[in-house]
Amino acid sequence: MKKIKIPVKKKRTNREESSKYNFEDSFRPKKIVRIVFYAIVIILPVLFSLNFLLYALKTNRYPSFPLDDPWIHLTFAKNLFEYFSFSYFQDQMVTAGSTSPLYTFILSAMFFFSSNEMYISYFLGISFFAIASFAFYKLSNIEFDNQVIFALLCTTVFIIDKWMNFIAVSGMETTMFVLILILCAYFYRKRSAIPFAVMLGLILWTRPDGVAFIFAIIVDYFLITVFSKNQINLLLFTKTDLKKIAVIFGGIIGLYFIMNLYLSGSLLPNTYNAKLAYYSPEFRSRSAFLSTEVWEYFKYKSYYVLMIGFLLAVAKLIYDSYKKTYNQNTIYIVFILALVFIYWLKLPYAHRFGRYMMPIIPFFILVASIGFRDFAFLVNKYTNNALFSKSIFYIWFGIIFFMGIKIYDETKELYAAQCKYIYDRQVMAAKYLQKNTKEGDVIATHDVGAIGFYSGRKIVDVAGLVTPELINKINDANYVDYMTKYLNDNKVTYLAFLREWYRVSNQTPLFTTANDYPPEVMDVYDYIPGKTHILSREANGLLMNAQTLANQKAAQQMFYILDRVQQIEPNSSFAYYLRAYACSLNNDDANYEKNMLKAIELYPDYKDAHLYYGIFLKNKGRYEEAMMQLNKVLELDPKNKNALANIEQLQEKINAAQQEELLNK
Length: 665
What we know:
This protein is mainly alpha-helical. It folds into 3 domains: 2-419, no CATH class; 420-534; 553-664, Tetratricopeptide repeat domain (Serine Threonine Protein Phosphatase 5, Tetratricopeptide repeat), CATH 1.25.40. It is built from 26 helices and 9 strands. It has helices at residues 15-21, 31-60, 70-83, 101-110, 117-143, 148-159, 162-168, 174-190, 193-206, 211-227, 239-264, 270-278, 286-296, 302-322, 330-346, 361-383, 386-436, 449-455, 479-489, 537-551, 555-568, 573-585, 589-602, 607-619, 623-636, 641-664, and strands at residues 2-3, 235-236, 442-445, 458-461, 494-498, 504-505, 511-512, 522-526, 533-534. Strands 4-3-5-8-7 form a 5-stranded mixed β-sheet, covered by helices on one side. It has a two-stranded antiparallel sheet with strand order 1-2. The chain is elongated and about 110 Å long. The N and C termini lie far apart (112 Å).
């Protein structure tokens, strides 16, 4: 590392003028105080994220994750540990199906110490968050020119952030990714060539979208080399350092590409290609992504105040660029914009809870904090009142802190609810399959995480994440036909689908959450080649629209949609069932009965059709026919409360009618 030599005619910073207007905190902690501060920024994130976890455990009484994806990492990690194979089923499904191979390797190593997958994941997520908080504090110290109080306040905002705590106990690689990005920025600022190169190389091993940070580093360093000709305080790497960085970085990412090529024949993981295919911009709105999943996400509640500071920092960056002066926020703002641009261009989807945007959060907080610091500095320059200027800065932090704590508590409740949501569907379905299937069975599903991990069965991933053969066909109009052939060829014996993804027609599920946990109903079916019929994606989408219209009692719109459904899926009992309901909204009893009978004809074990047709017959005074329908419901579901109650009412009516008949005689 070297300082640029200072030519005689270079512009110099007017130190007297600078010291006159800045309001630097003179507090410089002694060693023991620094150790206390270090302990605080490490212990606090542990306590805050543990609070999320303990609240969920107390509420739900079982451990879970708010996403299905953590079990994908765990399945790869467990197979790597047990079979020394980067595969999704024992050593038989070798594939580059993990977006974060580095995280998978670390998870696998943790199985040496514990077989409890939940504790391993919680431990890693919280540990990475704690270390990231420490690294963030060190980076903030640099960015705030060693003003410890400012750095500590900025770090506190990061520690109480709702999404950082949420994701720390969600079993994902996100906190590790955040840690690597922060360390990369820290070593870059320190011009520590070797650790910087290592972190830079590990970025892609953690997430492929980390290329945005690599791009930001390149842009920032280019600007530093340009501006260093006139700014004496800008440091450059030596030529030797640059060579070290090139060799180390090139070697690490070279191994990453070689591994992916070996496992799947492509430079990037299967998951990347599968998600690009499924969430293609052709089928998702780029403008909605920007307006809702980015803009609204980063101005919600406490983020709204942070956004003010962020925009102030952006304004200063523009001003400094005009003045041809280096701005310390360049790297962070370029990273944020680059990451958003990548997703806008290739994958306009931030995923549940904005997970793909979460790596932005620490840098969003840092830039916003610097933006308010610079604004307060400007106020001090024109008022020459350091106390007033500092008050602006501290009041801003106070508002952020109290808003952050409030939203932290709300998000804690969301975390517990979402853990239950996943457990009730994916985990319970997985445990059903583990208990009720044989070792040689093959399960087709689109949610491969918990089902792959707990069922212990071979998986066919119809979403393509770990079954790359299906990726190129996912968006085809006739994908279900192709998928059905693939299921037959691969001897699939069971299906596990959320109805919102794929709906099986005219067949009773072996396991369902329909009665207990709507929406997003998880069904498990026997897969019988030639008999099991999966509705086309178009038909299923139309049926979901028709369901929404049914809740709105919009009969005419329902008829319009159901006409199209019955053109492409003429034997869908659910379509006739919904049409019957639309007829009832129009008081058209004849067509209600006609459509309900057709639904039952197509699907003789259609419990809901028998139930509501039985109630209809009861209300029309056709008691014997009604009793037949309601008894059929009990045959299918002996504990059906609705059927039992209606049979009781029906029996009373029959008894009353019989007594009246006897009296008339």
